[in-house]
Every structure is written in C-alpha cells, then in structure tokens.
Amino acid sequence: MTSYQKGMARLLASASLAAIATPVVAQEQATSPALEDIVVTAQKREERLQDTPLAVTALSEATIEARDITDASDLSAVAPNLIATITPSSTANVALFIRGIGTAEPILTIDAPVSLYVDGVVLGRSTGAVFDLVELERIEVLRGPQGTLYGRNTTGGAVNLIAKKPADEFGAKGTISYGNLDYKQARVTLDTGQWGDTGLRSKLSYLHKERDGYFNDLNQPDGNDPGAYNLDAFTIAISYDHGGPFRANYTFDFNDRHSWAVPFQVVAMRPDIFAYLNVSPQLGGNAPVVARERLDALRLDMGPIHDKVQGHGLSMELDLGDNLMLKSLTGRRMWDNRQTNGDLDGNSGLVGFVVSPAILAPPNPFIPLGVRTVNLFSASNTRHQDQWSQEFNLVGNFDSLDFVFGAFYFDEDSSENNPQFLTIVQPLANPIPLGPGISTPGFGINIATGPKYQHESTSKALFGQATWHATDKLSITGGLRYTWDKKHLDQETTFRRDLTRKFNEPTWSASVDYEWNDDIMTYARVATGYLAGGFNARSANAGFDPEKITSYEAGVKSELFDRRLRLNLAAFYAKYKDIQVQQFVAGSGGATSITVNAGKATYQGIEAEAMAVPIDGLTFNATIGYVDRDYQEFLVLDPATNTIVDEADNAKFGYSPATTINLGGQYELPPFDFGTFTARLDYTYRGKVYYHPLTRFAPFNDVISDDSVGLLDGRLTLSDIAIGGSKAALSVWGKNLTNANYQNAGIDFGSLGFAGVAWAEKRTYGMDLKFEF
C-alpha cells in the first residue's frame, strides 16, 4: 500500500471514529432544524441516500430550483469530482467526467464512459444531451463504475435525471425571465390532477428560451453571435395509479434548439504558417488573428446549428405480492443535428497562394492554382441517432434478503456526414513573388475530407444483485452482470469499408456495510466496469478494444448533531486496463483525431460532501473532490521511427482537473407579511485542465491548457407573495459574478500547426418572476 493510500485510510478511519463519537453530544441538544431525507433509486430500488453503500450525490427538487439546474450542462457544481463542459462542436453536446474519467469525443462510433439516464432510460450519446427537462424532481450522481446494475459505459459513473411526475391535484405554475444578452424565458406547467376516479393524472409543460451570443462575431448580427440560442421544449406526462397492484408512467419530451457554437479563438500557430497567412492582407484578404488573451470580437466564419431531440419513456410496475415487484422500462429516443460551416480556425476571409492537392501523391507535381480562399479548418455536419431500449427488473425481498434481477436490451442506429475543409501549409525555401512587392514564403493545399458513415450498435445483458442483512447492522451485497455487444460500421468516406465487431464481458460488484447506529454507516466496495470497443470512422485502422476498470472504495455516511449536519466521505483506488484515449495523428490529409487503447492507468482520490442547517433558515453545503491519476503504460507509434514507444511519464489526462470544490450557502429570513426573503451564494472551483494527452502529437497542449478558475453565482428571492388566491416569487440572479475568464475546451490540431480554445460564458445576470396557483 502506498503512503498516499495509507493516508486516505487513516483519514477515513479518523472520520469514522469522530462521527461515531459525535452523536453522544448531539443527543443532549434541544429540538432543532434537521435535514430532509432524500430517497434515491441508485440501486434500482427506493432507499434513503444515507443507507446506500456507494458514493452517490442526490439533489432534491428544492435544491435544483435554488441552483437553477435545467439540463446536463449545469451539473459541474453538484458533486465532487464531476465536470460537465460544452464541447466546441455544438452547444447541445456535453462532455461528462467523473473521477477524471470521461470523453469529449463527439463522433457517433465511440461511447462515453459516463452514462446519462432520463427516468431510467439511458441516452446512447452525450452528443445532443443538452436538452431542457421542464421540471426535475431529483438528480442522482453515481460516482465510480456501475457495471452491475447499469452495465457497459459506466466506468466513470452514471447520472440520473428524474422528472417530476403528475400531481394528484390541479395546479399551474410558470416562470418569466429576462437578463443580459437579451435573455428571455417563458416556462409554464399545468397539472390536471386525477381525472375523476380513473387513477389517471397528467402534466403538460412548455418552455421557450432564447439569448444572444456572448462573443462578438463581427460578421454576424447579435442574434447569431457565438453562444446564441433559441429553443422550444415541451413535455407530456401521464401516470396511472389507482391504488391497485399496477402502476404506469409515460413521458414524451421534445426539444427544438437553434444555436450558434461557442466561440473558438486561435491562440498558437507555427511561425511558418503565420508568415504564410500574414501575406493575406496584401492579397486582398483579412489578416490572421492569433492571441492568447481572450478577445472580445473576431471575424469568424460560423453557420447555424439545429438540434431536435425527442424521447418516449414508459415505465410499468406490477406488484406480484407483498414483497415482489416486476418493473418494465421502455425508451425510444431520437436526435437530429445539422450544422453548417462550423469554424474551428478562429478566422475568416483569409487568402493565400494555393497549389493542387496532387502534390500529396507521387510523383508530387507542383501545380499552382493561384490565390485562393484558405480555411485552416472548418466543417459542416449532419447527424442522426435513433435508439430503443427495454429493461425488465424483478425487485423483491424475502426475510433478510433484498434482490434485483434484470434483463436489458439496447438498439441504436446512427449516421453522420461530416465534410471537412482544411488547408495544409508548407514553407518554401525561396519565396515566390506574387506581384509588385508581394511574395509568399509558403503555399497552401486545400483539402476536402471528412467521414460519412452509418453505425449500428446493439447491447444485451442479464444482471442480478442481492443484499443479505446478516444482522440488524451488517449487510453484504454482491452483483453480477454479463453483457453482449455488437457494433457495425458501414463507412462511405474517407475510407470505404464494412466492419462488424463483437464484445462480451462480465462485470461484478461486492460490498459490505455496517450501521454503527441510526446516524453512522461505513462501507467498503469493489466494482468492475467495462466500456465497449468501437471504430474510428475518421481513419483506416480497424478500431479499438474495450477498456476495463476495477475500483476499490471505502466510505462513511453520517448525520450528526440531531441531523443538522450530513457528512459523507469516500476514498477510492481504481486500476484501468486498455484505457481509451483520443490522439491526433498525422497523415497526408492533415491531422486526424482517433481513439486508441493507450495502456494502463491508476486513479486514486478522496471525496467529501457536507450539508448543514446550523440554525433555522440557514443552510450550508460543500463538496471537495481530489483525484490523483498516473499512467503506468501509454503506448504510441512514433512516426519518425515507426516503432512503439511508452510515453507514460509524459502523458496527461484530458479535460478533467485534479481538484474540484463546491461551496454554497442559503439563508431564508423569517416570513414578512408581504413574503419571504432568501439569499443564496454558490462558489465552484476547478483546478488546471489539459485537453490532450501528449505534446508529441499536440505540441501546443501546454499553451491551450486552462488555469484553475473559481466561479461565483448568487440569487436573491422574495417568495410567498400573495396575489389573490395564488403565490408569486421574484428573483434576481447572477452567474460568474466576478466575470472570470475560462475555457470550455481546447484543440491542438497537431500537424496542421495551430491550436485554439473555446471560451466559456462571462458574467450573466437577470431576474425571474414565478407564479403558482
């Protein structure tokens, strides 16, 4: 055991002893405010958060509303070691990382190691995952591999979004918002209540939201600036519960989103490429812009993005007896995306001396084409994804045994047509004159490339998990799952091929937990995970294999001082094998991003979550996460020697920081005759972030890395304003109040010779008017 692991063990042991000792003092306290219980379904059955022997963060409806969380992109501030970031390709794509594990790769042939679920239905893609659910009842973040109950593609963890079910009584609520950047929102929800004595209830929700961009594109009006969006969403939910053994819930959600991608700015460029582009103004074009500091305006060459997301979900439950229930979960989801002219070179209107692409193939003829428009990199995209899933659960308990058995089926069809346009720049030994006083130090080669393919994926699994309550304090849990995956790629360009691969893998988990008293529980858990292999649709290689993880975790869950303080701790150590990473590799057509099985890595870290209500009306929350990652093996092909080399000592982990901190405080004043004042502040910190594993293939990786950043959000609310027979609330809010500069992403285009960053939002603010009757 390393000194680091010994330190974590001592920390957990000390915390456990301190927690066990504390209630003796707490029992002497007078009646005081207490934390509410949160019920979760992380183990496919309802149980208290504090009784669940794994690392889970759960947010209640009140907390979700107070923090204004509406979709997956808002999740970074909710749990330790959780990062959610918008990718450069689309404002509808989110990259989720848990404990340093995740991917920002948007191509549809690659799965993500953190899965997102909506009412129990898995989303097959993180692309298109930023859609609004008009009313959320609960969010659950499961950290660490969930290979038994959730299956493949949860090596990092899983996130459950649970929508609010139709209410028993008639009611309506709405929100009208306005903010800077001409932000407007209208949100309304109608509950019909029960339809007579039928047991049927329904909920109808509608949302419209729009905003100008947060970065000035000098080639576009404000409404088309980077980061702008205009979306409409609605949800229809119908539930049936007549008090008998059968219950059902059906939900349909639809999102129609028009947007403009986040701003991309070039921050580094090879000197010979800059010298070539710097001749552009003399040839009648624009000057190249390269700057490391954040600029407020650029001339970009961006087109609109249109996303349509829709989904059907049907859950049915049938009680087979007092202690046995059969549950069915059926899901159908579709996503369509169209993007024109996605600009990832941060410039427009560049011109230069261009030669024919024939120079790239023997006998390499030099055929001048004259002065032409050049694009360092731009792309359009048309994508479609259609998935269907079915899961059955048999949930029950007999005497001292709780169990869940299940079967799962997933079928997905997707397609992508991603034409890309790029310019390869080559220096000249002797500049070529182009006119009086004008000469070019290099030449460009305009390339049209990009993948076009259809992809099919099916997954089947059988699983089971059982918990034996050996005593009234000691419980032992074990689970096993077996997964069969099949993937098929029909690729039209850039390489014509038809490939099929099959994978199958067992995953298992085992845990033991001990309840020292009503307020303290400790647990230890071992779990495995499996991320399916797949294909690289951008290159000619055969694809990549599954990655596998074995994780060891120990934790303490406690509620102290008469339940005024909830303190949960976890320490983990994970071993990765055949880890999947993204690399840029050079080729005759420029640089291509592919997924490879790099080798082996270990992850170890600690997590702490606390929530406290020291006095009536005052609530504090805090989470701290730290993960230490280390490659034991990182094998790559050295193009200079055509040999395999181990870069483990130099490799970095992309997109996720070592440290995350979330702090929050909320104070609700005693009610006044005219309403109730509430003030809330939230602070989120994340450490330094890199975006590529190696400078060997991404020479500007250090340049585009993003330093640590802290974000401060605030909200002031006057609620319980009586207006006739209804209630209203007025809030003023601000996000990123200190106007911090930080990045959503960074891309080093490798052999293309430039790199850039996608800037995140600066300060936003506004007000909400809510009503309910």
TrEMBL record:
InterPro entries registered for this protein in UniProt: Beta-barrel_TonB, Beta-barrel_TonB_sf, Plug_dom, TonB-dep_rcpt-like
CDD domains noted in UniProt: ligand_gated_channel (cd01347)
Single GO biological process annotation from the record: iron ion transport
Keywords: Cell outer membrane, Ion transport, Iron, Iron transport, Membrane, Signal, TonB box, Transmembrane, Transmembrane beta strand, Transport
Annotated signal sequence range: 1-26
TonB-dependent receptor-like beta-barrel domain span: 309-737
Keyword Membrane assigned: yes
UniProt domain TonB-dependent receptor plug: residue ranges: 49-158
Domain of life: Bacteria
Topology in the lipid bilayer: Multi-pass membrane protein
Subcellular location: Cell outer membrane
GO CC field: cell outer membrane
Family the entry assigns: Belongs to the TonB-dependent receptor family.
Record protein name field: Iron complex outermembrane recepter protein
Species in which this protein is naturally found: Edaphosphingomonas laterariae
UniProt lineage: Bacteria, Pseudomonadati, Pseudomonadota, Alphaproteobacteria, Sphingomonadales
